[in-house]
């Protein structure tokens, strides 16, 4: 009982810590395929209690490390009475992860993740070196090799080439019963609609579509086009569509959803919810908040859809998202001729749009609190100007 109470207190403290604007400790998730997470049901805890990831990970008490999917550097780490997940990202700067995904953690603090520091990386490396028999991975030695690459300091070689850090590792909560739209879509193609029905039921719950809208708001602020092709709404020179799906009956061109596998759903206690995961886009030119590119240079920032005057663009985007979700989930089988075959409510687009607006408000309030009395870089101020956000109001 004492341990359970302590973990609840720590979790609440984690959220308070986040809301106070201490965003420098906050971080990223990633953009690997959904299968890296969906192949394992992670751990089945009876209640919604998550370990406090603000604390250093307990590398001294690791019992086992297991790779979750072949080809993906995502590992379940088991410690006494708990589990967590570590994952490698193909970027050479932790800053590329911290800044954009701090914003997503504003929207979904229960999906909190952070970049592992040098001491934690060394702890993992040391454990792997002495516990080879307790590691399950598809290519033996791969994790250890990549951790060594993450620990490389900037160091010149005799030929003048600088050896730099090769990758970055993050830590996140192990999610219970994680699933996504892409998995449900593929099951539907095989005649199994159980996944489709589960996700449709979640999206029809009060607040779910609004939560999806808040996640889209974070993606827009970060200019993350890996989940939804947001740029297609604002860039007339970009292909105005999402992913092209191959089926036995031909191709299906989605309107804006770029990666159905990045629409995640999981459990919070006894409730199924939408999750703000996979919010790092490695191809995002705006991921560094200290750099801002303009349309004069041929670049388009998706965050403009958060501007109060961008209602028409938000409306189109939300309608396209709903259309794509309906396409992926497929029609309902109805015996009554005039009954709706759609899986989402008729006001789904309006609910997502409302979520985008509320998400923008949450992000604005977080930034305003975080930078109160502190200087802002010129590039970040440019980003705020495009959004029409004045932190002095």
Order of helices and strands: HHEEEHEHEHEEEEHHHHEEEEHHH
Order of strands in the sheet with the most strands?
A: 4-8-3-2-1-5
Report the CATH topology name of the largest domain.
Phosphatidylinositol 3-kinase Catalytic Subunit, Chain A, Domain 5
Mean pLDDT across residues: 84
Number of domains: 2
Rg, alpha carbons: 21 Å
Q: Specify the CATH architecture of the largest domain.
A: Orthogonal Bundle
Q: Uncertain regions: pLDDT < 50 for 5+ in a row?
A: 6-48
The CATH first-level class of the largest domain comes to Mainly Alpha
- Helix/strand-derived class? alpha+beta
How far the N terminus sits from the C terminus, by CA atoms, comes to 46 Å
Count of discrete alpha- or pi-helical segments spanning 4 or more residues? 12
Work out the helicity level.
25-40%
């Amino acid at each position: 009982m004492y341990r359970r109470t302590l973990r609840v207190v720590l979790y609440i403290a984690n959220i308070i810590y986040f809301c106070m604007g201490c965003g420098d400790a906050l971080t990223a998730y990633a953009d690997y395929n959904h299968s890296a997470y969906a192949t394992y049901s992670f751990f089945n805890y009876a209640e919604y209690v998550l370990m406090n990831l603000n604390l250093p990970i307990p590398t001294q008490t690791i019992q086992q490390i297991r790779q979750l999917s072949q080809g993906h550097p995502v590992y379940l780490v088991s410690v006494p009475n708990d589990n967590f997940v570590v994952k490698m990202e193909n970027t050479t700067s932790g800053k590329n992860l911290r800044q954009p995904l701090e914003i997503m953690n504003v929207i979904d603090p229960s999906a909190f993740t952070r970049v592992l520091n040098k001491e934690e990386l060394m702890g993992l490396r040391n454990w792997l070196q002495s516990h080879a028999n307790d590691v399950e991975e598809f290519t033996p030695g791969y994790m250890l090799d990549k951790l060594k690459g993450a620990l490389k300091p900037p160091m010149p070689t005799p030929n003048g080439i600088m050896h730099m850090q090769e990758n970055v590792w993050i830590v996140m909560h192990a999610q219970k019963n994680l699933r996504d739209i892409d998995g449900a879509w593929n099951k539907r193609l095989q005649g199994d609609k159980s996944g489709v029905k589960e996700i449709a039921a979640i999206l029809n719950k009060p607040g779910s579509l609004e939560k999806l809208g808040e996640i889209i708001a974070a993606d827009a602020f970060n200019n993350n086009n890996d989940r939804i092709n947001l740029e297609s709404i604002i860039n007339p020179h970009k292909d105005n569509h999402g992913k092209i799906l191959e089926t036995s009956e031909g191709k299906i061109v989605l309107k804006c959803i770029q990666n159905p596998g990045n629409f995640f759903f999981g459990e919070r206690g006894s409730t199924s919810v939408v999750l703000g995961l996979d919010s790092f886009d490695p191809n995002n030119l705006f991921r560094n908040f200290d750099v801002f590119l303009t349309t004069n240079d041929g670049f388009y920032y998706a965050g403009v859809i958060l501007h109060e005057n961008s209602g028409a663009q938000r409306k189109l985007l939300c309608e396209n998202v709903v259309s794509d979700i309906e396409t992926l989930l497929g029609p309902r089988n109805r015996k009554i001729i005039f009954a709706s075959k759609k899986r989402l409510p008729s006001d789904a687009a309006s609910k997502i749009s409302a979520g985008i607006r509320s998400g923008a408000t949450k992000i604005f309030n977080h930034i305003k609190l975080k930078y109160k009395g502190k200087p802002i870089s010129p590039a970040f101020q440019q980003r705020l100007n495009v959004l029409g956000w004045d932190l002095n109001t």
